[in-house]
Amino acid sequence: DTAVSQTPKYLVTQMGNDKSIKCEQNLGHDTMYWYKQDSKKFLKIMFSYNNKELIINETVPNRFSPKSPDKAHLNLHINSLELGDSAVYFCASRPTSGGSSYNEQFFGPGTRLTVL
Amino acid sequence: GESVGLHLPTLSVQEGDNSIINCAYSNSASDYFIWYKQESGKGPQFIIDIRSNMDKRQGQRVTVLLNKTVKHLSLQIAATQPGDSAVYFCAEANTGTASKLTFGTGTRLQVTL
After folding, report:
1. Chain B residues with CB-CB distance to A10 below 8 A
2. What is the Cα–Cα distance from A37 to B12, expressed in whole angstroms?
3. Cβ-contact B19, B109 below 8 angstroms
4. Which residues in A lie closer than 8 A to residue B100 (C-beta atoms)?
5. pLDDT tens across B30-51, in order?
6. Pick from A10, A27, B12, B19: CA 20 to 30 A from residue A19's CA?
7. Predicted pLDDT of residue B1
8. End-to-end CA gap in chain B
């Protein structure tokens, strides 16, 4: 029943490790996003994919690599985790057809990443 | 750089009163504005949006006002309820840029009984 889902919900790991966060949407949307929310609640876009093609890359370190195996999934892999990567990561999706809510983005529940 | 900001970080209102949350934006190219509500431990949830060719839009208990002259956006919540307690974000986008949303810093709304 969940529209945009993320796994895991919580992720605690050591500095230097590599980890992945998965996102799936069952809304039939073509565009998906990753956002990072810091401890001050500031939300910033990281990446966007449209039909498996990268369309937005917001000067994110190349330790972060998004992967979209199909248009319903957008995973985020992070290499060599650093303390500053600790944040809540949100996946979102958006329909690309027209309409009154053309640009509404639907957010997942978030993944809280803690790097020790 | 371009930014979207809020005047008040925390707003406390009594149950039943009306709430007004303000937002300033600086990108004159933005043509779409959205308000999101984020409850504790959850992802942002869409409340209402408005395009730059409008200056007012109403939803259920919520109204968004857009003043392009001063680049100001506000969210009005009528008869505020305890369930309205959350962090509210305004966001702007240029629909020609893959709907990249630029979020403001957020306002925490606290509803007191």
Report:
1. none
2. 23
3. yes
4. 45, 48, 56
5. 999 999 999 999 999 999 999 9
6. A27
7. 39
8. 40
Q: Are B22 and B29 in contact (CB under 8 A)?
A: no
Q: How many CB pairs under 8 A join A and B?
A: 56
Distances (CA, A) of B76 to A39, B8, B19, B85: 27, 14, 6, 14
**Is the CB of residue B1 less than 8 Å away from at least one CB of chain A?**
no
The list of chain B residues with pLDDT below 50 reads 1-3, 6-8
* Burial of B86 per CB tally in 10 Å (0-12, 13-18, 19+): buried
- A30-56: average pLDDT: 89
Chain A residue at shortest CA distance from B40 = A109
**Contact (Cβ atoms closer than 8 angstroms) between residue A107 and residue A23:** no
* Spatial CA neighbour of A89 closest among A76, A101, A98, A100: A76
Q: Does B12 touch chain A (CB under 8 A)?
A: no
- Phi and psi of A47, rounded to 5°? -140, 160
Q: B100 vs A48: CB contact, 8 Å cut-off?
A: yes
Nearest CB to B98 within list A41, A56, A102: A56
Residue A97, pLDDT score: 62
Q: How close A81 comes to chain B (CA, Å)? A: 23
Q: Are B28 and A88 in contact (CB under 8 A)?
A: no
**What pLDDT does A98 receive?**
55
